[in-house]
């Protein structure tokens, strides 16, 4: 009994979008692209390392210079803050509730990066009792994005598991790899908005060792409000 | 207009001699009418109600007593009870549907609506469907007719059949054409009716055999009358109750040639109306081409479809990825420079360590030198103690 393949099946195979040749071509293209991305990532990471080092050294230099001259060096005000929500959902008045929503801090121990300017500082003022915030350093930003960085892809929260993911979404802003993302966030570049909105709000764990008292501000030996550089130690405990 | 089983030409067979085509006639349009079992079922169930005879219960049944309730206080139910005494009937409950000898609940009335009106077009639609179904062999077989030995379906036979007068001739014809197996089935399965119909002049139950449809009765009616299971009908007055008995389509029909040809005039087509049913056109099907699979697989449809989307991951399934600070391979995938960075860091650390070591060694050496030197001094001081000095002085004196 000879098996005859129906014409419709033959046509379907020929027409198929998943045929072997088409798949192979697609795969080759993709591999090429991935290689490009990884070489770019390497070069840029190198560049950024130098840049961060230079920045640090420059700061030290200027401080020393000022000391020699007998004057003071006023450091530039911080551009980036990392906010962590440390109070729950129950019993939050409408204005702080709305601001927390706008900042994507919808649950306890969620964290976001925010650009510091007059308007955002005003917003932070309103939500001080519900959050703690400070100025993260490079290592904190890196740790957050590498370990707990999730992307908003197709209205879904997906862990960033390759540079291809970043390339697909942020290529038009010249952000193609993790280090690019870290750099954009840390230095609050031109496309900070897009880099930040690409990231889903960080879901952190409760801090190892606990809080002292969330009801008081950090300045008063509590936890809420601005804690400047001490945010870095807190994030290490919560990451 | 089903494209599947369209047979534009039908063979006409003789009634005796050899079973071979003596003529060919075109298939009337009725046989391509849409086959709608739902329409047929609806029309059949209503049409079947139309030959009912009224029946009812006597108006006075159960009411021919002057029973009255005894009321309360007598330790009996309050149902009306028969008056009087001296008989077993007295004091018994009466009138209620629950009482023995009482009237039934809602006594049946003669003026119940026995018959049903059906829209004429619906009736015609059903008949067209039923006729179309008689040409579909699977439907006829599924109805239970024995049609294996037939030369063709629909079975059209020469007009000579209409002139048959003797039952013997009719039976001979049926055997000749291969339809007698159906008749045999009827004879074999004749049974006494189950139920009370058996003593109400409906003793036996017969299957339905072939139906012979003629244009002119020149004796055919009487010839086939006595053959069990066989029914005859004029093509002008085809009855749905006979074409689809029990609302089951696919009666086995034997058409005479002129009857077959007349179908085109009686039921018309989609272009020409019926000559006998004013303003009636054949019902139109909802789908012209019912081979849906073929349509979907056709070039015209397939080339316009978008690509198949990749299969989405199962709901809730998270992509597991190790912590890059614990798994080097994950870290390198995200940051290809990381290994180099570590390397450079290591080199720098080593360099610093080396430099530091040199400095530390140098200063330690200086310290040790200083320590040694001061030790020597101390030793020298120790060597020159007070006693010794005195001795030296004494010696000088000497």
UniProtKB/TrEMBL annotation, chain A:
Pfam families: Ribosomal_L30, Ribosomal_L30_N. It comes from Anaeramoeba flamelloides. This is 60S ribosomal protein L7. One of its GO terms (cellular component) is cytosolic large ribosomal subunit. Keywords: Ribonucleoprotein, Ribosomal protein. PANTHER family: 60S RIBOSOMAL PROTEIN L7, LARGE RIBOSOMAL SUBUNIT PROTEIN UL30. GO terms for molecular function: RNA binding; structural constituent of ribosome. Residues 81-131 form the Large ribosomal subunit protein uL30-like ferredoxin-like fold domain. Belongs to the universal ribosomal protein uL30 family. Residues 5-76 form the Large ribosomal subunit protein uL30 N-terminal eukaryotes domain. GO terms for biological process: maturation of LSU-rRNA from tricistronic rRNA transcript (SSU-rRNA, 5.8S rRNA, LSU-rRNA). NCBIfam families: uL30_euk (TIGR01310).
TrEMBL record, chain B:
PROSITE patterns: RIBOSOMAL_L1E. InterPro entries: Ribos_uL4_C_dom, Ribosomal_uL4, Ribosomal_uL4_dom_sf, Ribosomal_uL4_euk/arc_CS, Ribosomal_uL4_euk/arch. Transmembrane segments: none annotated. Keywords: Coiled coil, Ribonucleoprotein, Ribosomal protein. It comes from the Eukaryota. Residues 374-398 are annotated as: Disordered. One of its GO terms (molecular function) is structural constituent of ribosome. One of its GO terms (cellular component) is ribosome. GO terms for biological process: translation. Residues 338-365 form a coiled coil. Pfam families: Ribos_L4_asso_C (PF14374), Ribosomal_L4 (PF00573). Residues 278-354 form the Large ribosomal subunit protein uL4 C-terminal domain. Belongs to the universal ribosomal protein uL4 family. This is 60S ribosomal protein L4. It comes from Anaeramoeba flamelloides.
């Amino acid at each position: 009994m000879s098996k005859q393949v129906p014409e419709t099946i033959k046509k379907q195979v020929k027409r198929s979008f998943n045929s072997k040749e088409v798949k192979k071509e697609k795969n080759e293209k993709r591999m090429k692209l991935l290689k490009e991305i990884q070489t770019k990532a390497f070069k840029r990471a190198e560049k950024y390392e130098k840049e961060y080092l230079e920045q640090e050294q420059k700061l030290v230099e200027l401080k020393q210079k000022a000391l020699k001259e007998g004057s003071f060096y006023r450091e530039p005000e911080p551009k980036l803050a990392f906010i962590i929500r440390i109070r729950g959902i129950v019993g939050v008045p409408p204005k702080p509730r709305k601001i927390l929503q706008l900042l994507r801090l919808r649950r306890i121990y969620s964290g976001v990066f925010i650009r510091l300017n007059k308007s955002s500082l005003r917003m932070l003022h309103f939500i001080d009792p519900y959050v703690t915030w400070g100025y993260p350093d490079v290592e904190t930003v890196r740790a957050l994005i590498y370990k707990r960085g999730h992307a908003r892809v197709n209205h879904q929260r997906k862990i960033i598991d390759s540079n291809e993911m970043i390339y697909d979404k942020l290529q038009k802003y010249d952000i193609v790899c993790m280090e690019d993302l870290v750099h954009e966030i840390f230095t609050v570049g031109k496309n900070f908005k897009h880099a930040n909105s690409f990231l889903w709000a960080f879901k952190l764990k409760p801090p190892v060792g606990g809080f002292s008292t969330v009801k008081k501000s950090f300045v008063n030996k509590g936890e809420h409000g601005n804690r400047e550089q001490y945010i870095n130690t807190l994030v290490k405990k919560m990451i | 207009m089903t494209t599947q089983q369209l047979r534009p030409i039908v063979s006409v067979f003789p009634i005796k001699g050899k079973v071979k085509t003596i003529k060919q006639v075109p298939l009337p349009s009725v046989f391509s009418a849409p086959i709608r079992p739902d329409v047929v079922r609806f029309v059949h169930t209503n049409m079947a109600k139309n030959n009912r005879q009224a029946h009812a219960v006597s108006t006075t049944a159960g009411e021919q007593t002057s029973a009255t309730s005894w009321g309360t206080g007598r330790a009996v139910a309050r149902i009306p009870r028969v008056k009087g005494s001296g008989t077993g009937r007295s004091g018994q409950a009466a009138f209620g549907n629950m009482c023995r000898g009482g009237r039934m609940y809602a006594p049946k009335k003669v003026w119940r609506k026995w018959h049903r009106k059906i829209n004429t077009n619906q009736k015609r639609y059903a008949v067209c469907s039923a006729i179309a179904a008689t040409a579909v062999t699977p439907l006829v077989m599924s109805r239970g007719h024995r049609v294996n030995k037939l030369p063709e379906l629909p079975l059209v036979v020469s007009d000579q059949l209409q002139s048959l007068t003797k039952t013997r001739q009719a039976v001979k014809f049926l055997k000749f054409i291969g339809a007698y197996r159906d008749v045999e089935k009827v004879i074999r399965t004749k049974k006494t009716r189950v139920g009370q119909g058996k003593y109400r002049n409906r003793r036996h139950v017969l299957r339905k055999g072939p139906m012979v449809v003629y244009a002119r009765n020149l004796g055919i009616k009487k010839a086939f009358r006595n053959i069990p299971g066989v029914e005859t009908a004029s093509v002008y007055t085809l009855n749905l109750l006979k074409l689809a008995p029990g609302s089951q389509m696919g009666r086995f029909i034997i058409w005479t040639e002129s009857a077959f040809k007349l179908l085109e005039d009686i039921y018309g087509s989609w272009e020409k109306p019926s000559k006998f049913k004013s303003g009636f056109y054949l019902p139109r099907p909802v789908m012209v081409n019912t081979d849906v699979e073929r349509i979907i697989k056709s070039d015209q449809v397939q080339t316009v479809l978008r690509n198949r989307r990749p299969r989405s991951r199962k709901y809730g399934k998270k992509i597991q990825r190790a912590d890059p600070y614990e798994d080097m391979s994950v870290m390198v995938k995200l940051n290809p420079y990381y290994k180099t960075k570590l390397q450079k860091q290591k080199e720098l650390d080593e360099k610093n360590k080396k430099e530091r070591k040199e400095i530390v060694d140098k200063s330690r050496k200086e310290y040790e030198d200083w320590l040694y030197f001061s030790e020597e001094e101390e030793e020298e001081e120790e060597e020159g103690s007070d006693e010794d000095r005195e001795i030296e002085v004494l010696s000088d004196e000497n």
